[in-house]
Amino acid sequence: MIIWHNPKCSKSREALKLLEEKGGSAEVFKYLDTPPSREEIVDLLQKLGISARELMRTKEDLYKELGLAKITDEAKLIDALAEHPKLIERPILIDGNQAVIGRPVEKVIDFLA
Description:
Elements: E1 2-4, H1 10-21, E2 27-29, H2 38-48, H3 52-55, H4 61-65, H5 74-83, E3 92-95, E4 98-101, H6 106-112
Parallel strand pairs: 1-2
Antiparallel strand pairs: 1-3, 3-4
């Protein structure tokens, strides 16, 4: 299992703690320190079964600054995620070909079950 983690995010820390409490272990991927490639983002979107916009933190100032609300081209939104990993929602747990965004944290509990 892999967790895309931002240590500064309370929800991300909560998900990691929950994972540890449940006896699970995960490779911690600090995606802000080592940004994922465009290909990794595309792969993640497939595992999540969502669009690029659904992976975006639409309340981030950067989202507004980049005018992403007006962009409908999926490829351009993926490019924005690759270029600005701060826009990626977190935490994300990946296990094989399945993944979940851990918001709310109850989604992590369901994913681990």
